[in-house]
Amino acid sequence: MHSKSIKILTFLIFLLTDFLLSQPNKTIGVNFNYILSAFVYPNVISNDRGIRNLSKEINGWIGISADFRYEFTDGYLLGFSLEVVDKKVEDFLIRRISNQVVRIPVEDRFRIYIAELSLFFVAPFSSQRWNIYIGGGLGAYKGDFTKSILNVKSKIQKSPINLGIQVISGVMYNFSERFGARVELKFRDPMVETENKFTEKFINYGGYTIQIDQAPFRPRVNFDTMTLILGMTYSF
Questions:
Q1: Rg of the chain's alpha carbons, rounded to an integer?
Q2: pLDDT value of residue 3
Q3: Residue 223 DSSP SS3
Q4: How does residue 204 score in pLDDT terms, banded at 50, 70 and 90?
Q5: C-alpha angle 98/103/107, rounded to 5°?
Q6: Are 100 and 115 in contact (CB under 8 A)?
């Protein structure tokens, strides 16, 4: 029994030593993502051509992400990341009732779930301390958009998964063999849509009863811009 315990302890020490001394080829990271701007289309299926083509540029979208990268051969890495982007936009719905202009608070909430698979190439002039790399791949985007008029919220009828491509470049600084930080720039152009509908017909605001349009509407978000990424990494 004593001999068996010594063998198990020796085996565990061997595994731990091998883990600590082996060259790291896997990295996990957590990131803060800042998307400079996006174009928001309020309803791309409106019968009104003016509304259908209407868009508004909204700046300052914030996201968080986590990723895993594996160096499968010298200088080449395969990466997978998950990201959540969230943005709230407040406005007013204008109605004229009995010669009175009524401004009703409206809130649009845009939440986007992103999964991306990428291939990275590390520049040959990189060092153990500094890594400079470029990459690109395929992304899947799913929207979770809602519109609230006062306290009445629209419900999602359809939320398709949209695909897109992305390219990325970055610099990683290794504080030690295990820990590092990185800065990246990502370029992508996805179209993310949901189809929504209000199920309630009326709201009461300021003593007025106001009718809500129950026709389906389809908001669209287009990230036709650059994303700045700041991340911390751990290699093993």
A1: 25
A2: 65
A3: coil
A4: confident
A5: 145
A6: no
Pick the closest to residue 170 from 184, 180, 160 (CA basis): 184
Candidates 31, 19, 44; CA nearest to 181 is 31
Q: Give rounded-to-5 percent helix, strand, coil for the chain.
A: 10, 65, 25
**Distance of alpha carbon 225 from its chain centroid, rounded?**
13
Q: Which range has the worst mean pLDDT, 127-136, 151-160, 208-217?
A: 208-217
Total count of residues recorded for the chain: 236
Nearest alpha-carbon partner for 101 in 213, 211, 208:
208
Q: Is the pLDDT of residue 87 over 90?
A: yes
Nearest of 236, 175, 179, 173 to residue 21 by alpha carbon: 236
Phi, psi of 25 (to 5 degrees): -130, 10
Rounded Cα distance, 65 and 85, in Å: 9
The encoded tokens of residue 123 equal: 């520049």
More confident residue, 190 or 4: 190
pLDDT at 98: 77
Q: What is the mean pLDDT of the chain?
A: 90
- How far apart CA 180 and CA 134 sit, in angstroms, is 17
Question: pTM for this structure?
Answer: 0.85
Specify whether the CB–CB gap between 228 and 34 falls below 8 A: yes
The whole-angstrom separation of Cα 69 and Cα 163 is: 21
**Structure confidence at residue 9 (pLDDT):** 62
Quote the CA–CA distance of 2 and 86 in Å, as a whole number.
58
